């Protein structure tokens, strides 16, 4: 993810933090200082946020490691001010596997909460602590409460929370995947409406959650529609076959000319054997022109880390790869040589064409337009 800094690795998975996360730490520290609290208290608040996000990393690792069991790779885990994001290459196709992966994250928070409660018991001499005392906010007790809240919040049956995926996986064991997603998305948007309605009476947090859930449910429904359209379709049916390429030794001036003369935004960089060695993106070209000038070689600004697919590969798989890559174009090869280009734009066009044809097929006879 752009604007993120690599912190290290956990279980072989890169852990990153978005730069805006540091704004959260600054806001917490300034809020504590504004309340005229001592330096130790301000430090304690910042340490609590760090501990909380340590729990978030473990939550995301739960998803990532359970997905690894099913052969699904996790690109990285990124910490954001609103939580964590594990970038799985894809969600499992099998509903039972999706159920396990979705529940793994909240299960980690349950384990953390149990361990923290055990620690509280030990510190209290194995006597049950007073619930009111828990609310008086020792560091461990606060962390326990937050983990319980994370479990409850994440298990709400609404996308994009884990509970929405759990519900979808249970429904998909009996129904078509797209139908299961539609039902889960509709329920999620109903909950979102309730949150927004309650938030209008003075709770801005509920209002934000409602908007977040509504958008997440709509996106999940759209993704399910695309998955249904792309299922079983080979990449060659949707790829672009008429496109321009560049050589690594061409100048950025050549890239500028192609941008102006064609509708392409990205250009495969090929060698003499039509093997793809890089991808010249519009963003890379623009930044290269600004920093290096038009006489610089394309080799200096091209993307070297990119995904590619064979023309016989599944379009659904290709879409998932393209989406997780962060790029808008993907070279398509035949026996290692470039033969096509797949972009987000032409995938969208392919989906619209197929959806229109499906509507035509479903329309009763006699309801069409004029002959």
Describe what you observe in this structure.
- It is a single chain.
- The chain is an alpha/beta fold.
- It has helices at 20-34, 39-68, 95-123, 131-134, 139-154, 162-172, 177-199, 204-230, 252-261, 282-291, 315-325, 344-362; strands spanning 4-10, 13-18, 74-80, 83-88, 267-270, 276-280, 309-310, 329-334, 337-343.
- The chain has three domains: 1-155, no CATH class; 157-231, no CATH class; 235-354, Roll (CBS-domain).
- It is 55% helix and 13% strand.
- The longest helix has 30 residues, at 39-68.
- The termini are far apart.
Secondary structure tally: strands: 9
Order of helices and strands: EEHHEEHHHHHHHEEHEHEEH
**Span between N and C termini?**
51 Å
Radius of gyration: 25 Å
List the helices and strands and how they pair.
Blueprint: E1 4-10, E2 13-18, H1 20-34, H2 39-68, E3 74-80, E4 83-88, H3 95-123, H4 131-134, H5 139-154, H6 162-172, H7 177-199, H8 204-230, H9 252-261, E5 267-270, E6 276-280, H10 282-291, E7 309-310, H11 315-325, E8 329-334, E9 337-343, H12 344-362
Parallel strand pairs: 2-3, 7-8
Antiparallel strand pairs: 1-2, 3-4, 5-6, 8-9
Helix pairs in contact: 1-2, 2-3, 2-5, 3-5, 3-6, 6-7, 7-8, 9-10
List keywords for this structure.
alpha/beta, 371 residues, CBS-domain, four-stranded mixed β-sheet, 9 strands
């Amino acid at each position: 993810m752009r604007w993120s800094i690599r912190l290290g690795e956990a279980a072989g998975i890169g852990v990153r933090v978005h730069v805006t996360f540091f704004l959260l730490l600054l806001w917490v520290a300034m809020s504590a200082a504004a309340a005229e609290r001592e330096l130790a208290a301000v430090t304690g608040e910042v340490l609590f946020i760090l501990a909380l996000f340590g729990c978030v990393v473990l939550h995301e690792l739960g998803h990532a490691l359970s997905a690894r069991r099913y052969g699904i790779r996790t690109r990285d885990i990124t910490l954001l001010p609103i939580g964590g994001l594990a970038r799985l290459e894809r969600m499992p196709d099998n509903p039972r596997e999706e159920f396990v992966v979705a529940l793994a994250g909240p299960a980690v928070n349950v384990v953390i909460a149990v361990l923290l409660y055990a620690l509280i018991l030990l510190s209290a001499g194995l006597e049950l602590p007073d619930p009111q005392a828990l609310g008086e906010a020792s560091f461990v007790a606060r962390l326990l409460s937050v983990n319980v809240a994370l479990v409850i919040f994440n298990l709400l049956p609404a996308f994009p929370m884990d509970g929405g995926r759990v519900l979808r996986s249970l429904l998909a064991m009996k129904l078509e995947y797209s139908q299961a997603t539609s039902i889960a998305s509709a329920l999620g948007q109903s909950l979102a409406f309730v949150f927004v309605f309650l938030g209008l009476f003075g709770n801005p947090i509920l209002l934000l959650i409602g908007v977040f859930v509504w958008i997440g449910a709509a996106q999940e429904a759209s993704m399910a529609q695309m998955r249904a359209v792309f299922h079983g379709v080979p990449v060659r049916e949707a790829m672009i076959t008429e496109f321009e390429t560049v050589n690594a030794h061409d100048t950025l001036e050549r890239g500028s000319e192609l941008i102006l003369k064609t509708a392409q935004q990205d250009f495969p960089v090929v060698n003499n054997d039509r093997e793809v060695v890089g991808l010249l993106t519009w963003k890379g070209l623009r930044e290269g022109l600004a920093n290096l000038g038009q006489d610089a070689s394309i080799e200096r600004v091209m993307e070297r880390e990119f995904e590619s697919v064979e023309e016989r590969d599944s379009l659904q798989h290709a879409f998932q790869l393209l989406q997780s890559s962060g790029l808008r174009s993907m070279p398509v090869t035949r026996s290692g040589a470039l033969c096509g280009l797949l972009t987000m734009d032409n995938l969208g066009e392919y989906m619209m064409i197929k959806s229109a044809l499906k509507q035509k097929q479903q329309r009763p006879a006699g309801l069409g337009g004029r002959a």
